Amino acid sequence: MKLRADLHTHSISSGHAYSTIAEMALAARKRGLKILALTDHAPDMPGGPHEYYFFNLRALPEYLHGVRILKGAEVNIISANGKLDLPVEMLASLDVVVASSHAVTTPETLGKKKNTEMYLKVVANPHIDILGHIENPLFELDYPTVIKAAKAHNKLVEINNASFTIARHGSFNNCLEIMRILKAENMPVVINSDAHVASRVGEISRALEVALEQGIKKENILNFNAQKTAEWFQVKL
Ligand SMILES: [Zn+2]
Ligand SMILES: [Zn+2]
């Protein structure tokens, strides 16, 4: 069993990523992926594309280099009430929506209690699919509360390989706690690359190694199975 779908990746359109979608799709094919979600940063990220970019993703074919392309976005959580930086109609038109906090777009000084309340609002948003890199220590969270709420709303909590490869102090221990809760709650796990360059598409080796050490079973990793992933996101393969 191996990774079949990468559900969090960035193309050159994000403004601080470096490959075209054709290069990314080819890299995905070489890695043996069946599904590639393009989740470029939403407009509030400096250098991010205009919202029309997401509207016009319908111009893309379903397959590039034989890889099923899912049209997505990584939206920014931009206020304490869980507001996101794409309009509802746009979110509804996308296959995959990852919601994340970033230092440049998300209030940084709310503290653990308010951050947790903010995430409870995000999790309840019917248009989001995945909570992105919640291990980021910049945004302290009550993980059991947020992850159990994600479970109740059928949302995925990703394990982000980039959190292991860029030195973000505290991410590692947060990842371990997140993995423990996902396992205890018997939730599906998704491990994503968060690639910002084609050569890293489908590269999840460090996160996978840690997940397996923590007792997460490969059969519980949703994106190891292309068919199950397609069913989860209600897309045809
Ligand atoms: Zn992000
Ligand atoms: Zn990202």
UniProtKB/TrEMBL annotation:
Gene3D superfamilies to which the protein is assigned, alphabetical: Metal-dependent hydrolases (3.20.20.140)
CDD domains xref list: PHP_HisPPase_Ycdx_like (cd07437)
InterPro entries reported in the protein's UniProt record: PHP_dom, PHP_phosphatase, Pol/His_phosphatase_N, Pol/histidinol_Pase-like
Stretches assigned to the Polymerase/histidinol phosphatase N-terminal domain: 5-79
GO molecular function: phosphoric ester hydrolase activity; zinc ion binding
One cellular-component annotation, GO: cytosol
Transmembrane segments: none
Coiled-coil zones: none
Protein name: Histidinol phosphatase
